[in-house]
Amino acid sequence: MSVIVLAGTIGAGKSSLTALLANHLGSQAFYESVEENEVLPLFYQDPEQYAFLLQIYFLNKRFANIKKAMQEDNNVLDRSIYEDSLLFHLNADLGRANDIEVSVYDELLHNMMEELPYAAYKKHPDLLVHIKVSFATMLERIEKRGRPYEQLEFDPTLYNYYKELNRRYDSWFENYHHSPKIQIDGDQLNFVENPQAAYQVLAMVDKKLAEIREG
Ligand SMILES: Nc1ncnc2c1ncn2[C@@H]1O[C@H](COP(=O)(O)OP(=O)(O)O)[C@@H](O)[C@H]1O
Ligand SMILES: Nc1nc2c(ncn2[C@H]2C[C@H](O)[C@@H](COP(=O)(O)O)O2)c(=O)[nH]1
């Protein structure tokens, strides 16, 4: 049973590549809970008040998705559970969660990971595909997608939040060792509008999956 997970900062192209990859592999795509997420707009309005609640919301949804995705081969998950932790710790460092909330979250995450139904032989994805984008591309894509509460006009302090998040992703990816991993250059490869770029990205993933299967 193989599970592939997409990673990358906000607007990197995870949802777009999740769709492309699941279609290519003939498997199911599992998306983040965004449109129906009633906490997300509240978080962007008042991060101090809602950072912890949003984190618990995402943890719950992410865990449910992981359990479903693990039931069939080659399913694709839009963002890893490890990145939620990265996002939460950034928010905590910005004073939006206190030490008790951080330790409750960290322990809950650990306990939930232990309880994954297939945890006896597999606790982690089979492949992590990280889409790396520059800060400029990140801002462009967030604007292009146009979720109102994510726009810099909505809250100019988001500029520094996004900049720091994008910076932290580099060391996060370097230090990620839970599974095999590959990195896609999301600045150069326009896999959304350019079929050749899409073909190139899918070929990279196929090659890595074949290597993993050969052991
Ligand atoms: N490689 C790419 N080249 C050009 N546009 C892209 C690329 N990846 C994503 N986009 C566009 O950027 C926006 C954000 O993409 P999305 O897949 O929603 O990102 P994420 O799920 O990582 O937040 C969308 O408008 C999408 O069409
Ligand atoms: N504070 C947190 N925000 C999170 C987390 N997971 C996702 N998100 C936010 C970031 C975006 O505004 C939105 C969807 O993310 P995309 O990268 O798919 O655009 O949700 C989290 O764990 N904590």
UniProtKB/TrEMBL annotation:
Database matches in InterPro entries: DCK/DGK, Deoxyribonucleoside_kinase, DNK_dom, P-loop_NTPase
Segments forming domain Deoxynucleoside kinase: 4-207
One Pfam family matching this protein: dNK
Key words of the record: Kinase, Transferase
Protein name stated in the entry: Deoxynucleoside kinase
Similarity section: Belongs to the DCK/DGK family.
CDD domains documented for this protein: dNK
Gene Ontology molecular functions: kinase activity
